[in-house]
Write a structure and sequence with these properties.
The protein is an alpha/beta fold and 394 residues long. The protein has 17 helices and 17 strands. Helix 9 packs antiparallel against helix 10. The chain is globular and about 60 Å long.
């Protein structure tokens, strides 16, 4: 079956016509899967796709439907356990969401860098999440053999800070960014934003505040709480943050009531983003509407596809990247992520090519709580954990 490409997709392929190592850093929703598969078909060699677990079926069906190339598809959590791929030669490696190999110390990244493909195709809508220091591994895969030390010397500004008595190196800025992007383009990278290609509908953000529970206030004051036979002990900054987020979420009856009211206010499809398994279980107890889900246990989008009043529950780590959910135009954030990249990616699940309606984003925020600070930091395109440790370090 022939694939009909959009002009911007044809343009991306034309820009990389003569290259065997390429990166398509296109905004979410611009069809990177089609560009990558067409490039792989052009290169004409067997394909190894590495992607998130929830996207394996999509990649397999895509290649089966449109191409005759031999293809293997595996997820990032398994790839480094499969030593046989280290022996492969003469194939095309596709890394879907290549930002997932940003940590060069991680086993998955070290394994991927040890592979020996003839061709490489990197895909990401947020290759750095605003952090250029996380590009080094991808530079190596594009064939730019710059050392990490030299990369930092040329493009990254750092300083030493004190974190609880321990000196750590902190990235505080960037230099020569235009030069960096030029070098990446010379090594096969294509950058493209949605607004350069197509006019998408308006995005409207709505913050809904709910009262904090007395349990939240008690825990914040004492850093200890026994709730539902479970002891919450905030003896470290990360544990305190974890339990404050949970007390703002599934432990907060006021937020549960606000979510129920929001669900009952519309018969339209809803996408609800959440963090913790308890939140997933909770939503199913407050509505009898048809449920779909994307989470660590799997993906079931049958009700999303077939029922106009469906609710689709999406766990950030499993579903914030790579899924097309433009049948819906409303996202509810029951709780927020800590990752700026996951936050930005989540918004694009509905705001993409094919969407014809205004997109609404409802943030359910517990007042006078950590959630307000989290949202502020995410809107600055920073990870909240980075802000947390910066505050801890003074």
């Amino acid at each position: 079956m022939m694939i009909k490409l959009y002009p911007h997709q044809e343009q991306s392929l034309t820009q990389t016509k003569s290259k065997t190592h390429v990166a398509y850093y296109l905004d979410m929703g611009l069809g990177k899967t089609f560009i990558a598969s067409e490039k792989a078909n052009e290169l004409g060699q067997p394909v190894l796709v590495v992607c998130q677990k929830s996207k394996i079926k999509d990649w397999v069906e895509h290649f089966r439907k449109h191409y005759r190339l031999p293809v293997a598809v595996i997820n990032y959590d398994l790839i480094w356990r499969r030593k046989e791929y280290l022996e492969w030669r003469d194939y095309t490696l596709i890394l879907d969401e290549s930002s997932l190999i940003k940590n060069e110390m991680a086993k998955r990244t070290q394994y991927v860098l040890a592979l020996q493909p003839a061709n490489v195709i990197l895909l990401s809508g947020t290759p750095t999440g605003g952090k250029y220091e996380e590009l080094w591994s991808q530079c190596r895969l594009l064939g730019w053999n710059i050392s990490k030390m030299l990369f930092y010397d040329h493009y990254i500004v750092t300083e030493k800070i004190d974190a609880g008595g321990f000196p750590i190196t902190k990235v505080v800025g960037y230099r020569n960014v235009d030069r960096l992007k030029l070098k990446l383009r010379q090594h096969g990278a294509v950058f493209m934003k949605t607004e350069e290609v197509v006019a998408l509908p308006e995005q409207v953000e709505i913050e809904t505040t709910v009262a904090a529970s007395k349990e939240y206030r008690q825990f914040k004051r004492e850093r200890y709480l026994k709730v539902h036979q479970t002891e919450l002990i905030g003896d470290t900054p990360l544990k305190q943050l974890l339990y404050e987020r949970q007390l703002c979420g599934h432990y907060n009856k006021n937020k549960i009531a606000a979510l129920k009211d929001l669900i009952n206010s519309t018969n339209s499809r809803l996408i609800i983003f959440y963090n913790f398994n308890a939140e997933f279980e909770l939503v199913q107890t407050i509505t009898d509407r048809p449920i779909s889900f994307i989470n660590g246990a799997g993906t079931d989008l049958a009700n999303y596809e077939n029922c106009q009043d469906s609710i689709t529950l999406v766990q950030y780590q499993a579903g914030a990247m790579g899924h097309n959910l433009e049948y819906a135009n409303i996202i509810v954030y029951f709780t927020l992520p800590l990752s700026s990249e996951l936050f930005e990616q989540s918004k694009k699940r509905i705001h993409r090519i094919g969407q014809t309606k205004t997109c609404f984003y409802y943030y359910l925020l517990t007042e006078k709580s950590v959630e307000g600070r989290i949202l502020q930091v995410l809107k600055e395109r920073r990870n909240f954990t980075d802000a947390l440790f910066k505050e801890a370090g003074g």
